């Protein structure tokens, strides 16, 4: 329910510093020195080979003592506790997250338990996790568990675009899906508490709008640049939209139906191979249908998402034969108590969401047919 506590205060929160550019990791010691000298580096084995080795050597040559905490792959309570123990035993004085959304969410939770600062070094622009003071926690099996909130945002977010451009373009596209939801959801939750627990500011609204402008202007161009591993101005702009604008925008603006429906879809096993932003992309179409968007508006978003190969139909989500019963179970989870869907001012119930999900698939299928999209 919007503003159930009749809040009057507004809040905007963010990391202390955001740094982005092609040499960020090489210069990491310069930016991270103020946090301490003995970090716990949370990194999985794949990212260690891509960027971890380079980061450790950059830090060790500046006399940091780095403890490597190998991340197992799921942002679960079990994994967080295991790495927290390692950090405590090694007497680390801050935490570094190097990797994607789940690595970042895990590192933020570890830093909170150790009561130290965290620096986030994303190696993909696939989610808006780097800037926020919350983590999405999953079960060890990969199902959505809960949101966990922290007192502080990450102190430093350091984005090396020369590393990000080496990630598969699918990651950037997923980030575009997540970032495109930011404005669509924030504009429907203006009178509800944001993730800081108070009302959104004008600044967060401006950031959400800017985020969307960048994606419509440069999303497709950046996706193509990523395929060629070219760090262009369009690529830099979209990395900023996906990471900074989307991160600040969703946290201080608020989420609504797109993410709640995403959370519902995490219970469908056949979709576990999809990335967060890919499921959110379909959630955007659902949100627009719930909003009563006209066909021109729906087409505009669907077209952008298709241009970067984001899934907008059941078939593209890999669930062509999804049953009504399964869609009802997604709708039920999306309407769980405390879900962000309740930020919306319009009437919401499981039945309304069930119909919106089916209507979203129909709208995208219709767009693809009308425009002969598959032949383009
Ligand atoms: Zn998201």
UniProtKB/TrEMBL annotation:
It comes from the Eukaryota. One of its GO terms (molecular function) is oxidoreductase activity, acting on CH-OH group of donors. Keywords: Metal-binding, NAD, Oxidoreductase. The keyword Phosphoprotein does not apply. It holds the Pfam family Fe-ADH. Residues 15-161 form the Alcohol dehydrogenase iron-type/glycerol dehydrogenase GldA domain. InterPro entries: ADH_Fe/GldA, ADH_Fe_CS, Glycerol_DH. The keyword Nuclease does not apply. Belongs to the iron-containing alcohol dehydrogenase family. This is Alcohol dehydrogenase iron-type/glycerol dehydrogenase GldA domain-containing protein. It comes from Hermanssonia centrifuga.
